[in-house]
Amino acid sequence: MSQQTRYNRRFVLASRPHGEPVAENFRLETVEIPQPAVGQLLLRTLYLSLDPYMRGRMSDAPSYAAPVQIGQVMVGGTVSRVVSSQHPDFKTGDWVLGYEGWQEYALSDGQGLRNLGTKLNHPSRLLGVLGMPGFTAYMGLLDIGQPQAGETVVVAAASGAVGSVVGQIAKLKGCRVVGVAGGEEKCRYVVNELGFDACIDHRAPQFAAQLAAACPQGIDVYFENVGGVVFDAVIPLLNTKARIPVCGVIAQYNATELPAGPDRLPLLQSLILRKRIKMQGFIIFDDYAPRFGEFLQQMEEWVSQGKIKFREDIVDGLENAPQAFFGLLQGKNFGKLVIRVGNE
Amino acid sequence: MSQQTRYNRRFVLASRPHGEPVAENFRLETVEIPQPAVGQLLLRTLYLSLDPYMRGRMSDAPSYAAPVQIGQVMVGGTVSRVVSSQHPDFKTGDWVLGYEGWQEYALSDGQGLRNLGTKLNHPSRLLGVLGMPGFTAYMGLLDIGQPQAGETVVVAAASGAVGSVVGQIAKLKGCRVVGVAGGEEKCRYVVNELGFDACIDHRAPQFAAQLAAACPQGIDVYFENVGGVVFDAVIPLLNTKARIPVCGVIAQYNATELPAGPDRLPLLQSLILRKRIKMQGFIIFDDYAPRFGEFLQQMEEWVSQGKIKFREDIVDGLENAPQAFFGLLQGKNFGKLVIRVGNE
């Protein structure tokens, strides 16, 4: 190992955000690279996935996963290579899918790692269309949403890593698919490149009316990964027996208090009753881990056949992770956001 | 037919309620009894079921069923006997389960009727434990709630026609069952007679704290037929992967406007996501009609074995239906509310 690579740079959580996260919530540390003991291996991060759920981990409000502790390395999915190994299942040069977080090097005991072998053509895809976001789209839409041919499926964040895959699978299943995205450029991409039937810009002043016009038969499946004004516009369009897989509520992650009244909780409850709606939250690996293999096989086939298209937004350098993450929460990225931490 | 029975008394909807229904919303009419033509039969109502959903039918807000029109007979489930028949499937004296509404006589073409034969031991049960309310409890709990032995099930309106059956089935399935009811007498009945593990009075000032204390392992299934303050107290106790069959929101039926803020709709959405909750509305005969036979067989067995107990609140005379109905919406009845319209 040369002098230049003897140190590991990593972002730790310096403080908890109040509302939108800011640069001061992160601290870039430089520490010595540890050496693997027997049963351990050392990983060098090539790609780090940035995803909206990370906002939740920065808070200590009760959630589905433990929060990152102050001073701990920020969590995140990674594609890495083995630098050195004293673990029987890994050897130097192996590609590894893991959860090593916002850092250049990581020591591991092999737990939770997936060995991808020595050859890997498109490593970053394992963080996007062939990884957690694609898997989330696949199971949430097919298992909870259960779209039937001819039904109308609405997908928020339609140009994003999850939404883009949701809509394309729904098209493969014969549905009418309407996307919601932020800005004209994203909407054009969603219709022209991804093949959705329509895409509505949620920033447009007539957004709710435009969404209604794009869904003349109402909405049978609403794949929720946004919340906020998009859900507000969806509510009156929901059909009897509509299904709502709840995968995320990015519009609400930075909220410091509830919106002003009236309290619409009883309204939602009455709606669920009157229209016999199913609304179900899910956390992809907690709920569906055993079906990852099935997903990967099907999605690799669709991708290779050109039936599922995707876009990556790759940012170079770990030091740019915080700014890229802030942009993600504001909808500024275009495609799956990945940090290229190290060069292949 | 004697002079006394030549007229049919019936309640029609005179006007739509604003908030709580009042006597003026109903009009008692006396009209001639019609004669059945070929293919028709004349029914005499013995028992009329009064149920909370009827409040919804009085309004013309969008709902899962068409509203009763002004001047139309109020709808409702009935057990009747055939007075005269020109229909091949029915003969004079047959007992019939139907949906003939708030009236003493009804003409029918046989559609939607269930012929119960000439002998029927406990006709009013077909409107309660062996009818729509029991069926609602059975399918909502077992199909949507899917209770597992050892889990905690909370049931609102626990002494009512639906809630009492939900809790007893959950006990048969090995669950810890906590009821919520209005008043000490109902709570005593729920624990001592029905065998729930606990029952909390929702009128008690420390209701939320008492409910929490009664659910030390949290809540896995909440059978929702109330809404309002009961649901508010349930929310913080819901476990990961909790299931909420939504069968009714009686606390909200008379509301004329939404409660004051803050708007907790985003809160509920976040909760569904974080805890991976399934919340699902259902309308019993629309969703489960083909399984009525399975239900009836199982429930008759449980009732005959004394495993499911029930209580009826029988009020004599059609003319008392409006007052009894107002009491039902205020939780004044104790047991399944049935009007004895005619004598056997």
TrEMBL record, chains A, B:
Superkingdom of origin: Bacteria
Residue ranges of domain Enoyl reductase (ER) in the record: 21-339
Keywords per UniProt: Oxidoreductase
Coiled-coil zones: none
CDD domains the UniProt entry points to: PGDH (cd05288)
Pfam families: ADH_N_2, ADH_zinc_N
Keyword RNA-binding appears in the UniProt entry: no
GO-annotated molecular function: oxidoreductase activity, acting on the CH-CH group of donors, NAD or NADP as acceptor
Protein name (Swiss-Prot/TrEMBL): NADP-dependent oxidoreductase
Organism field: Serratia oryzae
Top-level taxonomy: Bacteria, Pseudomonadati, Pseudomonadota, Gammaproteobacteria, Enterobacterales
